[in-house]
Amino acid sequence: MQFYIQQILNALQVGSVYALIALGYTMVYGILTMINFAHGDIFMMGTYVAFFFSTLILSLVVGIHPIFAFVITMLVAMFGAALLAVVIERLAYKPLRTAPRISVVITALGVGLFLENFMVAFKPVGPAPRFLPPLIPAVNYNLGGVTVSTIQIVIIVVSALVMILLDTIVRRTMVGIAMRAIAWDKFIVPLMGVPVDRIISLTFALGASIAAVGGTLYGMAYTIDPYMGIRIGWWAFISAVVGGIGNIRGAMIGGFILGFVEIFTPVFLPSTYRDFVAFSLLLLLLIFRPTGILGRPMMQKV
Amino acid sequence: MKGLSYFLLVTIVLGMALSACQPAAPTTIKVGLNLELTGSIPVVGESSRNAAELAVKEVNEAGGLDVGGTKYTIELLVEDNEDKAESAAAVAQKLATSGVLAMIGPNASRNAIPASVVAESSQMPMISPWSTNPKTTKVGDTDEAKKYVFRAAFIDDFQGVVAARFAKDELKTTAPAVLYDVASEYNKGIAEVYKKALEESGVQVVAFETYTTGDKDFSAQLTKIKEAGADSLFLPNYYSEVPLQVQQAHKVGFSGAILGSDSWGNIELMTLCGSECDGYYFTTHYAPDIATPKAQAFIQAYEAAYSKTPDDVAALTYDSFGLLFQAIQTAGKLDRQAVRDALASITSFEGVTGNMQFKGTGDPVKSAVILQVKEGKFVYFMNAAP
What we know:
By secondary structure, chain A is mostly helical. In chain A, 71% of the residues lie in helices and 3% in strands.
């Protein structure tokens, strides 16, 4: 029993990170019907912002309270990633707004490759793996045979809070309503006075800052390197599709499903089957329920 | 360039000094070096060249090598293989036709394997200091041994055997577990040999878990390992991944001993692992703080000449020369065939990296070293006899 509780905790930890990143894919898709393949690399950039800022703050301010250091690092990483995402959107995607959708997807792939290779070539980063400096002291608690670490608790709790916050923003605020309106109809909504370009930029910023939260949390548990966004980006993308791309709650559910696939495949099968199971799930879902778990079929407007 | 011209000057002066001592006809033995001086691992090539020059200098300063009553000085022909398979083969070809008695190098298996094919077909003795891939000394994909190709390092599989014996005898493990990268030949080979060796000695491996290169989350496998009641964990994986595995093992509550292979031996392991790796062990070729007088003499001479601690490539290159010199003296004549035969039948050679012996094949029977991670340093723990 403890064995399965332990594995469920492991799965929640991994799933939280996938869910946070899947949100960025799904939000951008919802508003632009575009898959932002650079999103995994924006996650990576956000993590490096957290890396440099936390190194700086821990060396400058001696004896800083860990929770304060963690929160401020996360906020700076969110801001950095949001800024980067808005710049990318303005420079690379906006000029292609009327171009065929495939052009934007290819541009996004190009942006991703650019970010990865820029970071490899950039001297202070380079290809070597690193850890984020220990912002929150890692302590293991043993609860009746199940080991829970502070890092694990922080990852799961912070992710849950951010997801609830985002869900509220999208459902309750004016910005959220505008986002959903644009997703509903891109042509009529501007006529109602909704500043479409600004809302699109805001969507990118929001998606990127949530990815940066994921990055900060990820960096506390795993090593970071410039290529870290590739695999996680793919898994988060599958999460978004499994949950129903375009649907925010779907992305969260999808993230946790993929987290469970990642952890429970090696429990029952050899670990080499993991990607096989994940992509089979994707294929089966696309055959039997192409819109994902919570997605609604898109009506072709004439 | 400055370093090079300085080196040339020293060689010339040294050469003049030596020829002044021996006014008789200059008798030299040419030895080729096939090294990775440029490319992705230039540090390996540089260490190897430094050690080679040191070995040759020592012999020449002592008046040369006594072969059948005549003193011969050693002359090095240093060639760069650019860390490319095709250049390594081309360099081997060039050396084979330029009258060298034997070739030392290449170091990386990816270069040593193509070069060994050339050495074998041109019947030129070759010693690779550092190559650990079993294929270097084998003919094609068969199990037949090449006749002219030798190495100073032990082969990958041997580490699995050493680690298994260490786990059983020193760590007293009764429930060993393994986590390894199934997509990498090196990790997989060692892991499988480790499991086999333990089970042959009567200890059952309780968990044999895999992952794939690039994975960062091992919590599922490690939880399984803990659930299986493992009291030791073998991680024959690269230094960039080991810290994560160790940390996550601690996170799921694993508290047994952890053991690794020579892929741990990079100082990066310390920067990533911090104190979490403290007290763990890994098998490798050589330890800079090993206590044998021969090794100490080498380390002191190397540090005096290049002001840095010799790494495993340097030590193995130095031993390759030691092996070659001993074989030449045993052969008693400057003939490739005779030197090859003498190498293949070396029954005892005391090297910097331990005692070696050849039993008909090009793979030495030698001991491995077990190091312990202690306060951010790799510390010699014990010798593991073959």
